[in-house]
Amino acid sequence: MPPRTALVAGATGLVGREILQGLLADEGVATVHVLARRAPDLRHPKLVVHLVDFTRLPALPALDEAYLALGTTIKVAGSQPAFRAVDLDANLAVARAARAAGATRLGVVSAMGADSQSAIFYNRVKGELEKAVDGLGYEGVVIARPSFLLGDRQSLGQPERTGEKIAAGVGRWIGHVLPANLRPIRAADVARALLRTVPQAKAAQVLLSGDMQPA
Question: What string of DSSP letters covers the chain?
Fold first, then answer.
């Protein structure tokens, strides 16, 4: 296969950071473009960083695949509209721009319980994003729906999320008896599942949290 050109949005986040590192280490990837409001604390010969305003994205360079890992919380965003502007609007803007730049495959970091008809606002927004990207004409779309994420948010300068902290404690004590889809999952395992699946994707596919847990 010819060398691929990839794009990551959200590379300074928990899963996005792992996706970026995986792409940079992949000998089959020639260039990795990152869209960000602030530059990641990383330098690499393959890495091209574009500092952008996600409400006014520029035309993107030619791409083969793209990964959407932008995300926040309502607490951090400050309101439901502000949360929606990141988790739905910004991700969707990147997906559209990447498709216009020739990307044929897309990986999306969503969430367990995503459903565009959900009564829960968070799950509804995640589901709306899944539904929207499915109609953009990608040859392959891979949706990752992780349970509570495990990873070092402190090293990213991000506040610890209460649900993830509780889930990590529960996982240590009774994780082995929980159904696979409910167990907390490491951000690195979510990234690896997407990196393994997206380059070969031929249709729409959902990876549940249990599917991404290591054997």
Answer: -PPEEEEEE-TTSHHHHHHHHHHHH-TTEEEEEEEESS--S---TTEEEEE--TTSPPPPPP-SEEEE-----HHHHSSHHHHHIIIIIIHHHHHHHHHHTT--EEEEE--TT--TT-SSHHHHHHHHHHHHHTTS--SEEEEEE-SSEES-SGGGT-PPPHHHHHHHHHHHHHGGGS-GGGS-EEHHHHHHHHHHHGGG--SEEEEEHHHHS--
Render pLDDT for 155-165 as a digit per residue (tens, 0 to 9). 555 566 555 55
Residue 106, strand partner residues: 66, 141
CB 32 within 8 Å of CB 3: no
Q: In the predicted model, what is the mean pLDDT of residues 109-129?
A: 96
Whether pLDDT at 189 is above 70: yes
pLDDT of residue 173: 46
Q: Could you give the CA distance from residue 113 to residue 57 in angstroms, rounded to a whole number? A: 29
Identify residue 29 by its one-letter amino acid code: V
Report d(CA 213, CA 184) in Å as an integer: 9
Residue entry with tokens 């952008």: 52
Segment 69-93 mean pLDDT? 94
pTM (two decimals): 0.88
Which residue is associated with the tokens 């520029």? 58
Domains belonging to the chain, first-starting first, are: 4-147+186-209 (3.40.50.720)
**Of the segments 3-7, 41-45, 164-168, 171-175, which one has the largest average pLDDT value?**
3-7
